[in-house]
Design a protein that fits this description.
The complex is a heterodimer of chains A (287) and B (322). By secondary structure, chain A is mostly helical. Chain A contains 11 helices and 2 strands; from the N terminus they run H-H-H-H-E-E-H-H-H-H-H-H-H. Chain A is 76% helix and 3% strand. In chain A, a hairpin with a 2-residue loop joins strand 1 and strand 2. The longest helix of chain A has 30 residues. The relative contact order of chain A is 0.20. The model of chain A has no long low-confidence stretch (mean pLDDT 88). Chain B has 322 residues and is an all-alpha fold. Helices cover 79% and strands 1% of the residues of chain B. Chain B contains 16 helices and 2 strands. Chain B has a two-stranded antiparallel sheet with strand order 1-2. In chain B, helix 3 packs antiparallel against helix 4. The chains are: A mainly alpha (287), B mainly alpha (322). At the A-B interface, helix 3, helix 4, helix 9 and helix 11 of A face helix 5, helix 12 and helix 14 of B.
Chain lengths: 287, 322
């Protein structure tokens, strides 16, 4: 029974990692930019949710709509003001820029919300029996939304006209351009979409996690491990790895404590790098 | 004698005299400057020359701080051998890390190292039987800063001279070839993997030693201090602003950032991180090759590598006489 409880808890956690890692993977796939500030956009989303629900006493669903739109706008601005101007330079320049954006966001979050932890007690409280185990409603709902959005974005990439344009820009930008696709526009929208997904992940974790301005650093590290284990640039790989690592973290945390659990994720990542550098479902992207 | 070496001699003379005439405030400012110079030059080796920048130098800084502090506390060792053993610990840690992490390219390597630093910080916090966790370790305070001042000065100068030598050597050219085009460098017969890993290991030694000396200097260490993200950020800003892969860049950047640090950190500590972030974005957008390259462009400094200039001079003479 305990093993089943931990398994369910791990899969529910993995859903949030999936949403976050898929946004990161999407931006990387289309722009060859690693958005180091991705975790901090998530942290800003979580803290903004606390302000909206606990501070302004507005219902949770308001945050669920407003915050992802807000972070998408933030991502759009980051892309248009900074990233667009250095996209043709070596990858490391855009990485340094997003690293700097990350520290600015952390600093801004500390100024706005203070350095401490904020929770959202009472939102989606209670639990329901599921397969004979009591599962928190907040976690079940956030898993459902996170996986739903991740799968919807995957479907959109594979099946819609916009998705085809996104994939063509990621695979052959020059050919996409001569086929009449506006590369700039696709990149702006992709960055906004990725940032919106990070913001949504923030809204979803606000009721179950204590949020603080440093939350981003802890999450970017895990999202990064997910992408490496799943395979860089592979959407299904990231989904699978997110669930696996979520389960691993919960089991590790239960048996060895939270500190060792985080280290365990990294050990798995190092092992994957040594044994199978392209990841579980990766196709071996050359960077 | 070249401009760079002349500069080094003058700086060495000032460094030697300074602690006997300056106030404690100036000495402690200079100690921090030397720390930044040593960290900047170390990061410049792997980030600037080999073209593998990363966000995990505090891994070695923090490990060195803890190894040094634990050696001093548990064995009563003097701070100098403790610092040297910390450097050894840096090597021991860098060998497996380099072997595994350098399989990652560019940005993946950079973020992977960031993760390693965060994991070690969590371990320092979690293994409280050894490290006392968040309480931190307290060391006997230093009454006289001068011995540590001279050791740090020596490290800073050694890194500067080492970089000067590297910049004029075949090894330096090989590293730059890896940075510009790793596949082409491999095709030319350069042992890219071996050189990358060796450069990474070399760049880990001094940060570990400096970490141990920093713990001695503060006479205190806890996980947030040892693995402080601002140490990482400042080091990267130093090298980026000064000029990645240049001999003078980290020095210029370190002097600039130390002054900025002194002006801002004391007055606006709450927005220090954000301001350094703004500086980095400014550098990335408007002068990605740093101040030193800008000075060369404006002809305030001679261009090119000293060894190439010597060759050019030789050929000019030969052409004139022939």
């Amino acid at each position: 029974m305990l093993a089943l409880e931990l398994l369910i808890s791990g899969i529910l956690l993995g859903g949030l990692y999936a949403l976050m890692a898929c946004g990161l993977n999407l931006i990387f796939g289309v722009m060859r930019v690693i958005n180091f500030a991705h975790g901090d956009i998530l942290a800003v989303g979580a803290l903004a949710t606390v302000s909206i629900v606990a501070g302004q006493a507005l219902p949770y669903w308001v945050a669920l709509i407003v915050v992802p739109l807000g972070t998408a706008l933030l991502g759009f601005l980051i892309q248009v003001v900074i990233i667009r101007r250095i996209i043709d330079q070596p990858m490391i320049m855009s990485l340094l820029a997003t690293y700097a954006i990350s520290t600015i966001l952390v600093n801004a979050a500390i100024l706005i919300w203070g350095g401490g932890f904020h929770g959202l007690p009472g939102v989606l409280a209670g639990s329901i029996p599921f397969l004979g185990v009591n599962v928190s409603i907040a976690r079940l709902a956030s898993f459902a939304v996170a996986m739903g959005v991740s799968l919807a974005v995957w479907w959109m990439l594979e099946r819609t006209r916009f998705g085809r344009a996104v994939r063509s820009v990621s695979q052959a930008p020059e050919l996409a351009l001569i086929s009449g696709i506006s590369i700039d526009q696709i990149r702006n929208l992709t960055f906004a979409l990725g940032a919106g997904m990070a913001g949504l992940a923030g809204v979803l974790l606000a009721p179950t996690f204590a949020s603080d301005p440093q939350l981003g650093a802890r999450f970017i590290v895990k999202a990064f491990a997910v992408i490496i284990v799943g395979g860089m640039g592979s959407y299904p790989g990231a989904l699978l790895a997110a669930l696996l690592l979520g389960v691993l973290e919960v089991y590790g945390g239960f048996w060895f404590g939270q500190v060792i659990a985080t280290a365990l994720l990294y050990l798995v990542m190092l092992a994957v790098l040594l044994v199978r550098p392209r990841g579980l479902l990766g196709v071996g992207v050359r960077v | 004698m070249s401009f760079t070496l002349l500069f080094a001699v003058v700086a060495a003379a000032i460094t030697a005299v300074l602690p006997f005439v300056a106030t404690d405030y100036i000495i402690s400012f200079t100690v921090q400057l030397f720390i930044f110079v040593a960290l900047g030059y170390s990061w410049n080796l792997i980030g600037g020359y080999a073209g593998y920048p990363h966000f995990g130098q505090v891994t070695f800084f923090g490990t060195g701080a803890y190894v040094g502090a634990l050696l001093m506390l548990n064995t009563g060792m003097h701070w100098l051998p403790a610092a040297l053993l910390s450097g050894l610990a840096g090597i021991v840690l860098a060998v497996p890390l380099g072997g595994a992490m350098l399989r990652l390219k560019g940005p993946f390597f950079a973020i992977g190292m960031f993760g390693i630093a965060r994991v070690l910080e969590a371990l320092a916090m979690g293994l409280d039987g050894i490290t006392d966790g968040g309480t931190g370790l307290y060391l006997p305070p230093m009454r006289d800063l001068r011995p540590i001042y001279f050791v740090l000065a020596g490290l800073a100068f050694a890194m500067f001279l080492g970089t000067y030598w590297l910049d004029n050597s075949r090894l330096g050219l090989k590293l730059l070839a890896i940075r510009e085009d790793e596949v082409a460098a491999d095709a030319l017969g350069i042992q890219t993997t071996k050189l990358k890993v060796l450069t990474f290991i070399t760049s880990a030694i001094v940060p570990a030693i400096v970490g141990s000396l920093y713990a001695t200097y503060l006479s205190f260490i806890d996980p947030p201090t040892a693995f402080f993200p601002a140490t990482e950020l400042t080091t990267i800003a130093i090298v980026l602003l000064g000029g990645m892969g240049t001999v003078l860049g980290p020095l210029v950047g370190a002097v600039l950032l130390s002054v900025v640090n002194e002006l801002l950190w004391s007055r606006f500590p709450e927005i220090y991180l954000g301001l350094v972030g703004v500086l980095i974005i400014f550098a990335v957008l408007y002068m990605p090759r740093g101040l030193v390259s800008l000075a060369v462009k404006q002809r305030w400094m001679p261009s090119g590598r000293a060894s190439f200039r010597r060759h050019a001079e030789l050929h000019k003479d030969a052409a004139a006489h022939g």
